[in-house]
Amino acid sequence: MPYSFPQYVTEAITGPMPDPPGLKLKKEGLRAKHPVVFVPGIVTGGLELWEGRDCADGLFRKRLWGGTFGEIYKRPLCWVEHMSLDNETGLDPAGIRVRPVSGLVAADYFAPGYFVWAVLIENLARIGFEEKTMYMAAYDWRLSFQNTEVRDQTLSRIKSQIELMVSTNGGNKAVIIPHSMGVLYFLHFMKWVEAPAPMGGGGGPDWCAKHLKAVMNIGGPLLGVPKVVSGLFSAEAKDIAVARAIAPGVLDKDLFHFQTLQHIMRMTRTWDSTLSMIPKGGETIWGDMDWSPEEGYAPRKRNNGNGSNDAVKTENGVTESVAATKKYANYGRIISFGKGTHHSRIHQRFDFRGAPKGNSIANATCSDVWTEYQEIGFSGIKAITEYQVHTAGDILDLLHYVAPRMMARGTEHFSYGIADDLDDPKYNHYKYWSNPLETRLPNAPGLEIFSMYGTGIPTERAYIYQQPSSLTECSIPFRIDTSATEEDDDKCLKDGVFTVDGDETVPVLSAGFMGAKAWRGKTRFNPSGIKNYIREYDHAPPANLLQGRGTQSGAHVDIMGNFALIEDIMRVAAGANGEDLGGNRVYSDIFKWADKIQLNL
What we know:
By secondary structure, this protein is an alpha/beta fold. It is 32% helix and 14% strand. The chain has 22 helices and 18 strands. A hairpin with a 2-residue loop joins strand 5 and strand 6. The termini are far apart.
């Protein structure tokens, strides 16, 4: 019997819907066993005001992030001021305290009607889970990971809560479910909790082995995401770039009667957490001028709307795509100035590093929308474009050049390289703990790690930018060239963005490489041989509007309502292991791409 009118209408049109995972597994006799901890990602957790300026009068303990976002429209400049962190310290500005909402309500819904964790929580409740066995590890996602402990003692609170839940649930170890940037945050936590005080939590070298059954990473940007680069560089990703092209000037000038993108850039560049997702591993992982692991990628074709495709799963879990192997894109060229530059052989580049800055484009009218571009001047902007192509090996230097204050803070908290010798004492510092290429997994051979993510959706990988033609005092000088498009369906360039397989936000390479290769078996990154499983969820959009966001989505956030993913999580929380789930389930070419990467294991 349908439990709601929308379901009744849907079933009348499309036929009976499958039972929700909670109901299905309850019928099978599964019951709650292991306590579960949810670790939300960036932007999905609510933030509320505890102290503010006069312009924020009446907003005490009201949500500034999440909910209805009404304050953006009522007092936009005030909202930007309170959502920004101090540009020097990365902590609270004087007189402002914005703190994470606590409890399951912190991230069950991002906005009214837009679920994040709510569907998973509801299904877990059907087999007996409740608040004493479920915990939302809410944190201020704007801060660097270590600063969440410095300011709020969040890591200590997570440690204490896990210990409490394990001890009050018969010693059953916890199942950790991080999503998106929460995957990096919990990777940092696993190093912090075992590291000696005062830098770490002092839990000792066997804390993870004693308290954790499984870490089920959902949509984890373990090796970073290219769209963070475009966001920091020009406050753009694909959708913003298209909007600017359709309605020139709207986002630049008068959406809220002020320079919208400039204020967004100023605000987001104070959020140190975003720097955790700059691509890691340089050209070894992401490719160089003429090579990338995904070279030859072409989108897989769907035969119908039920999620089937032309991928064939082999016995070892590797999928062979029957797509053409022609090289369509130089994905290693993450930023190119001009479409021709992206495809052509580059004979000479003028290095921007150390290029003089000057001829400032700033004046007094820019003080409210300062983005650091006003300090590099026309000569600095010219030096960046004359370099023509920026690979993963150049990106850090590029960001240091255009945003030195931001990157000075960031490099105190994050690192992006590949460790030569993990026994080097320098890797005991917290700045390395969220980079899986510069840290070891804990000594916990009984732990299992799942890499769970969507596939089959075009996902941003590289960008073509316009050559700056005219500059105004307060403008962001760089824009994605939305006129750069290849019409062939097999091509991966649209609106100035090259795409590859992923979940619309995180490329498969970032979400899956560690589980497919660097953490598989006993390696220097996984010395105790923690078992790793790849669980991919091939995207199938809803058949009609009545199905909402669907139950087979592989999209970065919508996957949280994917019935197959929810069932996998519930089975593990009820006591199953990775082999019980069937081991690896792979639709992409992640194993083939991982084999192309030459990394000392």
